[in-house]
Amino acid sequence: MKKISVVIPCFNEQDNVEPAYTSIKDVLEKLSDYSWEMIFMDNDSTDMTQDRLRALCQNDKRVKAIFNMRNFGPDCNIINGYFAATGDCVVWICCDLQEPPEMIVDMVHKWEQGEKLVWGQKTGTQEGIVMTVCRKIYYGVISKFAEIKQYQHCIAWGLYDREVVEELRKLNDPSPVLRNIIPNLGYKPCLLPYQQRNRKRGKSSFNFFRYFDYALNSVVHTTKIPMKFMIYFGAVCGVLSFLAGSYYLVRKLLFWDTFALGLAPIIVSVTFISGIQIFFLGIMGEYILAILDRVSFTKHVVEKERINFNQEDK
Known about the structure:
The chain is an alpha/beta fold. The protein has two domains: 3-203 and 299-313, Spore Coat Polysaccharide Biosynthesis Protein SpsA, Chain A (Alpha-Beta Complex); 225-296. 50% of the residues lie in helices and 16% in strands. Strand 1, helix 1 and strand 2 form a beta-alpha-beta unit. The protein is elongated. The model has no long low-confidence stretch (mean pLDDT 83).
């Protein structure tokens, strides 16, 4: 009998873990030809999440939990769940149930038809207009400049065949953003459309600045265009500066007694160039930080405790 593993990352989701368990369990029990396990990956929650997970694990041995020593971020938490899973396929889904658990049935059917990777793709969302516009800009930038095709409106939630999971294990990537890693591996996901729901309970730990940092990290890991653009822009600025300088020099030599150079052009030019330099230094810094992360990388998470895992699962 084939086994399905469902990985559920969570952080301060005390109001969501029980509804998530119930909803996902109801879906998995419809797949009567499969055994299953449910793995909650807790990123060092500070509320009652861990206590409620202990109760779930006590009542149902198919429910497992891993508690991290600290918050290692959502991506590292998810990838560690994939590596802890023992199923023939692994599905990850957010604990807040904004992604519909009932889609797992369709994903499993696609998997049985030969698909190695099945993702959900948002066709709509109920979030605010500001975030909607920001997401469109993000996906537009990624699609335009990424060197390898990226999939729009996908957060990489869905079903992964064991083969894909083992390929991810080989990478040992310190910043495992699945939506960016998978295209690099060459796997083409089967996309299933869905309407993203609003979060019913609790509050997301992500704010605008964390989303912005996440987007910037994606740009750094999918394209080298910003670094190359620095060279092109520097060359253009150099040529324009030379032409402007030559113009002022000629005008001053020919009309030295009437042509006033003034400080305004100099101040504007220096301020503009300085701003551009600082901006590109920031971009360069992001690439350097990515290199530092890879050089100093040890492991994705440090675990504090595992519940309901057999000795061979560790």
